[in-house]
């Protein structure tokens, strides 16, 4: 008697794990944006100090995002800073085009403060134009580098900047030179007109951050900081002692912490 014996079943091969959309340890970094990313007034008066940049700088005191991700030697070889002091969102498409040439795995974006810091609130960049230029920037990046990742920092809280910096007599004197007059002009004025002016600027900053959040959310390889830079409770220790507007070395280090936390966060 006998019967057909069943052939031994083969063990199913494990399915390969899908490649995650977000790489928490990218191998190269390019930075775009404005004077904050250039480290302006962090080291010397009226000058860029890219060594102290939160994004790509090599300063041990800052421990930049690039250094944290790539190591000091790796950051020196595989990170690039295309930010320009004074830049606004309208300048971002051009900066992004230059950054694309390096084929970075991660691009950091911090821009918007100069769009709000104009001579008067009426001169601020319209929200619609801000959105269009940001969308254009991400579109061109995505066309050239489909898998490049983007970290987007929120625009800082300019009204807190006013409330902190105005405690310094030196800060108020420097602001008279024309630093962010829409928010910082006549810093001791507390009348209704001054309050309305500052509130108008602050609302525009909040609108810009809403644009950054919404546009970034439409791109599966983009991470917005969730408003962390805007919400950070900085004080004068984080402000440049030369202009009480730009981040000091200490402030740059805090920005680096926020960026690293966002880039390396586990998300479903």
UniProtKB/TrEMBL annotation:
<feature type="compositionally biased region" description="Low complexity">
    <location>
        <begin position="1"/>
        <end position="10"/>
    </location>
</feature>
<dbReference type="InterPro" id="IPR001087">
    <property type="entry name" value="GDSL"/>
</dbReference>
<dbReference type="InterPro" id="IPR036514">
    <property type="entry name" value="SGNH_hydro_sf"/>
</dbReference>
<dbReference type="Pfam" id="PF00657">
    <property type="entry name" value="Lipase_GDSL"/>
</dbReference>
<feature type="region of interest" description="Disordered">
    <location>
        <begin position="1"/>
        <end position="27"/>
    </location>
</feature>
<dbReference type="GO" id="GO:0004620">
    <property type="term" value="F:phospholipase activity"/>
</dbReference>
<protein>
    <submittedName>
        <fullName>Lysophospholipase L1-like esterase</fullName>
    </submittedName>
</protein>
<dbReference type="InterPro" id="IPR038885">
    <property type="entry name" value="PLB1"/>
</dbReference>
């Amino acid at each position: 008697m006998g019967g057909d014996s069943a052939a031994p079943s083969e063990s199913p091969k494990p399915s390969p794990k899908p490649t995650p959309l977000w790489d928490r340890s990218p191998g190269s970094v390019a930075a775009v944006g404005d004077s904050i990313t250039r480290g302006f007034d962090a080291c010397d008066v009226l000058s860029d100090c890219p060594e102290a940049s939160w994004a790509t700088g090599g300063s041990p005191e800052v421990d930049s995002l690039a250094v944290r991700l790539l190591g000091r030697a790796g950051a020196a070889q595989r990170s690039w800073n295309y930010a320009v002091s004074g830049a606004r969102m309208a300048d971002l498409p051009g900066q992004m085009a230059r950054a694309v040439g390096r084929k970075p795995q991660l691009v950091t974006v911090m821009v918007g403060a100069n769009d709000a810091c104009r001579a008067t609130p009426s001169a601020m960049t319209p929200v619609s134009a801000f959105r269009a230029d940001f969308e254009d920037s991400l579109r061109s990046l995505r066309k050239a580098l489909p898998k490049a990742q983007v970290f987007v920092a929120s625009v800082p809280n300019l009204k807190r900047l006013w409330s902190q910096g105005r405690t310094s007599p030196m800060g108020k004197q420097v602001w008279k030179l024309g630093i962010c007059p829409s928010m910082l002009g006549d810093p001791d004025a507390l009348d209704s007109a001054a309050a309305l002016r500052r509130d108008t600027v602050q609302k525009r900053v909040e609108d810009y951050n809403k644009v950054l959040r919404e546009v970034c959310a439409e791109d599966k390889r983009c991470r917005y900081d969730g408003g962390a830079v805007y919400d950070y409770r900085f004080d004068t220790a984080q402000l440049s002692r030369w202009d009480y507007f730009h981040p000091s070395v200490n402030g740059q280090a805090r920005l680096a912490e926020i960026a690293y936390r966002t880039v390396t966060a586990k998300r479903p």
